[in-house]
Amino acid sequence: MNKKLVALVGLSLLLPLAAQAKDDPWKVPPGFAARTPQAHAPDVAGPIVFTEPEFPLGTTINGLNLTTLNGTPIGATTVFGYLVNGTPSPDCTVAPGPPPQNFVNPPGMEGGAPGGQLTMDFGMDVSQVAFGFAFSCTPPETPSMTATAIDSGGGTVGSVTVPAIVTGANPFLENQLVLQPGPLFRRVRVDISASPNCVRFLLDNLAYPPLVTPVELQGFTVE
After folding, report:
1. What's the rounded Cα separation, in Å, for the pair 150 and 181?
2. CA 47/CA 221 separation, integer angstroms
3. Is the pTM value of this prediction over 0.85?
4. Domain of 54?
5. Which of 116, 126, 162, 189 is 20 to 30 Å from the Cα of 143, by its Cα?
6. What tens digit of pLDDT does each residue of 47-64 get?
């Protein structure tokens, strides 16, 4: 065998999994089987599952204005933003991510995790927001998402931090975040906490009033 080839093979075996997965952070680790894609919710106004015509693959999230869902007006324009270390960034798009898991069923909003921040301005007062999320890493990593509710005057009315966890036999850390602070709010800031080993995140199944659906969202029913 070519000595250079042997050296390269040996080097790849010594690299940590995070480095080997850099080109494909959502590659299913050995020992896990990818699940069959789940059926998405019916074509009604919510929750957002990112297969709607308003979210074609490749759509940049930062600066995205959402006025309809499946062609139905949603009541007020929702404006999305994405920043990395405080700077607006195009590195968050509608894209595939991990295989289907408990709380995500790609595609979804997929972007860089370390230093990442998502914002959602609903254009009207809402009472709750929920979404599923996953990270492209496994234990012992401990990434999390913190959602902060902000009212029309810019004041904070509530906040919740949810860690990503192992769910059953799924390959990647994930969870669901539900924010119901009590007072109404108009904007949500989602701060992403992750080490460099958790390269990417995916957010899916986004629900908030007035996106109403009879479909239960992983145990959280939008009413």
Report:
1. 10
2. 10
3. no
4. 3-221
5. 126
6. 898 999 999 999 999 999
